[in-house]
Amino acid sequence: MKNLSQTSGQRRWLSLGIVGILCSACLPVQAANWIMLQGTEQPGIAPKAQFFGFIQPTYQKDFSEPFAGKYVPPKLIGPNLDGQSSFNILRARVGVRGAPFPFDNRVNYFLMADFGNNSITNGGRYGEYRPRLSDASVTLSYIPGARLRLGLFKYPGAEEGLQGIKTLNYINYTTVTNQLLLERYPSATDRNIPPQTTPNADMNGFSQPANGFRDTGVQVFDAFDVGAFEHTYAVMLGSGRGVQLGESNGRPDVYLYWSSAYLFDQKNKGPMSPSLKGFAWYQGGQRHDAYNATQSQDRIRYGAGITYLKRPFRLTTEYMWGNGLIYQGAQNPQNLFNNFKAHGGYVEGGWFIPNSRWELDLRYDTYTRNLNQPTQSTFNTWTAGVQYHFTPQTRVTVNYANRDFSALSVANNNQLKEVKGLLAVQVTAQF
Length: 431
Prior knowledge:
Layout: H1 2-24, E1 50-62, E2 85-98, E3 107-114, E4 132-140, E5 147-154, H2 159-162, H3 175-180, E6 214-226, E7 229-238, E8 253-263, E9 275-289, E10 292-310, E11 313-323, E12 341-352, E13 358-369, E14 377-391, E15 394-407, H4 410-416, E16 422-430
Antiparallel strand pairs: 1-2, 1-16, 2-3, 3-4, 4-5, 5-6, 6-7, 7-8, 8-9, 9-10, 10-11, 11-12, 12-13, 13-14, 14-15, 15-16
């Protein structure tokens, strides 16, 4: 078994390398500074209130087959997990941002609410959909080199989670980002759900919303230039409760972030400036067992990556690791409190076809959870995509994911080996 595991790992690294070589042949490239994109409007330019938003109607079809006539969540469409095909308004977000004081633009605010049906607004198996506040923050830019952001906002971390959702080039997150970073929170009344004989049974056992890569807290951050390089840092203390306001585990989560970007164009130093960016991040906290409040468990996540993007090409690669509270599936809230380990990464690239509105995308991601455990599972996915940009604000995206899942446990492997392709079509319209 050890040799087989090593061979599988070598194949995954070889696949990552092949995609990386193919994408790096598309140089040069560019990156975005997501830390500085929000709450750092230029003094004297920012309006008191600028309204914005976007909507993402989405259709998905899962071609997986049941094992022994029963289904598990990887074969069903989220967030409801009650069918193998779904038309859904995945996201519908409306927000307002600006500098409210005309004589002091060093105070910025950012508010946004989500009206779509996703892991933030869908509470889980009780079907308690409700719109939810996803962002509510104030940024103070009084201290040179140390801006201060307070409230609910995206924590500094992995590129895929930190990136603005309306700019994501794929409809679904990679498995490693989805399982390792999109945190779920069990309640004491949540129970595990066994495989079901009908795809119409709600398989989501979590009654609380996912964190949406967000937290409530305070962050010190800024970016500064050194020659042709732009360096960005962020240090944050958060509640560890995601978008759930008014709750805390009593011990703050710690978030650390650093990026260094080489700017190709010294005259263009905005958040989306053409550059080669390397970054690293860390987050650590503690969670209490929802089923036994006397027990606690550390939750550690960290990773690093590179983004290199400049039209007509794009390249991103990232690898991350996790220890504690490793996600075991939407149907298994009682199994979330654990001290297991996991790791995974992805390589993705895109090509904007010159003199056209078409964009081609290709991504490979791999994730292994429950390392060195009898329940160790591996998830490998190739995603091919095409985008057509009607306007700079409106596009249609088509993805097809070829998934190869497996597990050491016979019972788990019987279900995972029947996971097949996933087709997704989405329209993104911004305003």
